[in-house]
UniProtKB/TrEMBL annotation, chains A, B:
<comment type="similarity">
    <text>Belongs to the RNA methyltransferase RsmE family.</text>
</comment>
<comment type="function">
    <text>Specifically methylates the N3 position of the uracil ring of uridine 1498 (m3U1498) in 16S rRNA. Acts on the fully assembled 30S ribosomal subunit.</text>
</comment>
<dbReference type="Pfam" id="PF04452">
    <property type="entry name" value="Methyltrans_RNA"/>
</dbReference>
<dbReference type="GO" id="GO:0070475">
    <property type="term" value="P:rRNA base methylation"/>
</dbReference>
<dbReference type="InterPro" id="IPR046887">
    <property type="entry name" value="RsmE_PUA-like"/>
</dbReference>
<dbReference type="InterPro" id="IPR006700">
    <property type="entry name" value="RsmE"/>
</dbReference>
<keyword id="KW-0963">Cytoplasm</keyword>
<dbReference type="InterPro" id="IPR029028">
    <property type="entry name" value="Alpha/beta_knot_MTases"/>
</dbReference>
<dbReference type="InterPro" id="IPR029026">
    <property type="entry name" value="tRNA_m1G_MTases_N"/>
</dbReference>
<protein>
    <recommendedName>
        <fullName>Ribosomal RNA small subunit methyltransferase E</fullName>
        <ecNumber>2.1.1.193</ecNumber>
    </recommendedName>
</protein>
<keyword id="KW-0489">Methyltransferase</keyword>
<keyword id="KW-0949">S-adenosyl-L-methionine</keyword>
<feature type="domain" description="Ribosomal RNA small subunit methyltransferase E methyltransferase">
    <location>
        <begin position="78"/>
        <end position="237"/>
    </location>
</feature>
<keyword id="KW-0698">rRNA processing</keyword>
<feature type="domain" description="Ribosomal RNA small subunit methyltransferase E PUA-like">
    <location>
        <begin position="22"/>
        <end position="63"/>
    </location>
</feature>
<dbReference type="InterPro" id="IPR015947">
    <property type="entry name" value="PUA-like_sf"/>
</dbReference>
<dbReference type="Pfam" id="PF20260">
    <property type="entry name" value="PUA_4"/>
</dbReference>
Length: 248, 248
């Protein structure tokens, strides 16, 4: 454990003695909100170089410099799992992104389906939510949030080797059991969560016909999309992902 | 499937020909917000008599009467699982209650720990969230949300036969694996989610010493309490609960 309480995501490279210049928001947060001063320790990560203990070398009102000292954790990449979901109401979309980052998805892909209400997302805001979740959950990696894209177009160029766990609350599907989870083949995966109105018939037909797709039903109650996302990520992580390993 | 789109929780008994008088809020919702008129169909449930198709017999501004016709689903009780959690920020506490109802917890018990910030909850508001979640998820049961009570007092009279799955993100614990899940003994259970600051040392010692307690670690990242609640409910449901059965 480090004496530093604050974890901060930065864009710059991290390494021994490496100075890290803060932007105005970061300086404001560290020095005005959290009241850190010269010599205080912060944990930094950039999604590439693991986690580093850094100390405040210069503290200004809207600027500052930290100096990296020692690595406190190696880079820990999440398993090769994407989360595809149809954006819903703002608060719940934010929530899905936060939860996907906490649960260890490697990429987050908002998709537009026939019954998706949103025709745009604030990608930058969602990405910021993923950063915040990574800062909070102790991760050293931040999943990329992609721009909103039509599901059909994404499926047109879908990689042959990436399987899709398709969770559609309005479809029967196979109920997920411990046996199905154990039998899931290894390799790259994506979880696809349906929109609130379900998938349109042509979408259903297309998905059902894809060889990569495994259809799954999540219990006897109809879950909201945000609940379904966390539940599906949990099941995949324990079956195939990094929940199988012991924590350090 | 019924022609009725709206599901409404009511307190009254439900049965063939049974008239159900609406309160002012319910009448406002059905007739002013949703614009239903005489003869329109609604699905009713009360947590005891299953789900019934009812039709509007009288529609007024702040009152109305529905008449039950036929049962559309039997009562489906959730498994005997309690969720214990330390209330956190308002929005996340609301969220935990909503998710617990969706995920099929039978009782929801907010508990006060040494590091719990909240010293009161709005039990009526949380109960209303559980009702709304049940209306939305197609359930025929509404879990009771208990009043906030100190964890210590709850443990003083803890039933000998009810096991506790203790998820504390600040404790090592045994990582939950598919094997541990399969080996969980049957019977009444509770899930205990730690507060954001973790448990105090005396609480940890007490919990660790209880014969009913199984300690669990949920993956390598630190989950927020609301994420941990959904993840733990998912794992328990698939191992011990009603996710093992096929949906109708």
């Amino acid at each position: 454990m480090s004496d530093a309480k604050i974890r901060l995501f930065v864009d710059q490279p991290l390494g021994p003695g490496q100075p890290v210049a803060l932007n105005g928001d970061q300086a404001h947060y560290l020095f005005s909100v959290m009241r850190l001063s010269r010599g205080a320790a912060v944990l930094l990560f950039n999604g590439r170089d693991g986690e580093w203990r850094a100390v405040v070398a210069e503290a200004g009102k809207r600027a500052g410099i930290l100096t990296c000292e020692t690595q406190t954790a190696p880079l820990r990449l999440p398993p090769d799992l994407w989360l595809l979901f149809a954006p819903i109401k703002k608060a719940r979309t934010d929530f899905i992104v936060e939860k996907a980052a906490e649960m260890g998805a490697a990429r987050i892909l908002p998709v537009q389906t026939r019954y998706t209400n949103a025709d745009r997302i604030r990608q930058d805001r969602l990405q910021a939510h993923a950063v915040e979740a990574a800062e909070q959950c102790g991760g050293t990696f931040v999943p990329e949030v992609a721009e909103l894209q039509p599901l059909d177009r994404l499926l047109d160029r879908w990689p042959a080797e990436r399987r899709i766990l398709w969770c559609d609350e309005h479809q029967a599907g196979q109920p997920v059991t411990l046996a199905t989870l154990t039998a899931l083949p290894a390799g790259p995966w994506a979880i696809l969560i349906g929109p609130e109105g379900g998938f349109a018939a042509p979408e259903q037909a297309r998905l059902a016909g894809l060889p990569q797709v495994v259809q799954a039903s999540l219990g006897p109650r109809i879950l909201r999309a945000d609940t379904a996302a966390v539940a599906a990520l949990t099941l995949w992580q324990i079956a195939q992902g990094d929940w199988r390993e012991s924590p350090e």
